[in-house]
Amino acid sequence: MKFSFGLFLNLLVVGIIVLLAFGCGSEETIKGSLRFLNSNGEEVPQVGVSIKVFDKDGIVAIRRKSRVVLGEQIIQLNGEESSSEFVKKSFTNLFDIISSTPFVDEIETDDAGLFEFSFNGDEFLIAVDLVAGDKTPKWLKLVRVSSHKPKGIDLNAGNQLNLGGSEDFLTLTEIENQFKRRLDELTLLAEWKPKLELQNLIYVSPGKFFMGSQEGSAFRNQDEIYHEVTITNSFWMGKYEVTNERWNQVWEITDFNSSEQKLPVSQVSHGKAQAFCWKFTESEREAGNIPPGFIYRLPTEAEWEYACRAGTSSVFSFGDEPASLSNFAWHKSESRGDRQPVGSKSPNEWGFHDMHGNLYEWCFDWYGEYRSFSVVNPLGALSGKGRVLRGGSYTSEGFQCRSSFRYPLTPITRAFNIGFRLVLGRPL
Description:
- By secondary structure, the protein is of the alpha+beta class.
- It folds into two domains: 6-161, Immunoglobulins (Immunoglobulin-like); 199-425, paralog of FGE (formylglycine-generating enzyme) (Alpha-Beta Complex).
- The chain is 24% helix and 23% strand.
- It is built from seven helices and 20 strands.
- Strands 1, 2, 3, 6 and 9 form a five-stranded antiparallel sheet that branches. A four-stranded antiparallel sheet has the order 5-4-7-8.
- The longest helix has 26 residues, at 172-197.
- The radius of gyration is 27 Å and the shape is elongated.
- The two termini are 30 Å apart.
């Protein structure tokens, strides 16, 4: 695939880098050349061009930072930006990150535009700044030594942002897709917010927050590692926990106790909660009651805490003092030993009821250790023995109702103090 700088910089010249690998084992000698094709189609050696080489640690650091910075770009969109402006800014941000990341080697091309270096490992990232008149194009290439072909590697073989797939870096297509998705969501918001609010769903916009609890915080557990999270996808979340009334409607249950309709549904396993989401999505999609591309699902653990905190960083969404908990939560000391009707306690600042207490709520995630660095749209562990429960319940002590408190439980578990809350959002 021919690399197009025209999309970004409207250049009149095109550069070529050819890398050749020699030797075997863990250390390879990488040889290459750097030349320009000028406007007449003639190859011109590029002399004294600085080339930075990054090892695996540098690659990981650049990837993490670039995803966070892109997330910040996404949440700042207001609908007036163009795709080309957004991509150009993303491109500039990426190279700012590269410039601030430690590299393992820096070399320069010689009088013939040739260079070589040794690399201990099977993967490296090469970053090049070229000067072409009043333009400064930037080249980026991820190279895996083990996959070298005899003819070497041509930087022009692919777009410079397509660096081995989404696990390595964001691709140009992925950047453009995230931009388009956010603009689509802003358009949907104007149409759907009034409709969905009538269904007791509250819109949650993208943003950043600190998840977990700071060291020294009251009742802090070791699994509450404090770290920054960026949420780039907006979603709607249920104002209340799913009630018996909604449960019976979706499953078409007619034999029920009418006095319990406003109670949150309990004794629901993780799988049964997900099955409910699928069935509800199907019926609401057929009725035209949800935006295209959206589904009902369980919240991720990050989405849940983001909505629970509602912009706060305190122990509870209302502050640090447990004495005020009774205004917001049904918990052990005053619940009378049973769940209570939803919405009968005060909501948090974003309008959500019973985020503290009443019933524990299933989250989508497998339980696992948090990252200690900034992350974007985390989904928890890839697998595990327990799914995450959040929020505490009517059987919980006050400290178990904290915004950061998390608890793993086998997903087949059904209990009187476990329920769930819906999210209407993009598929995970």
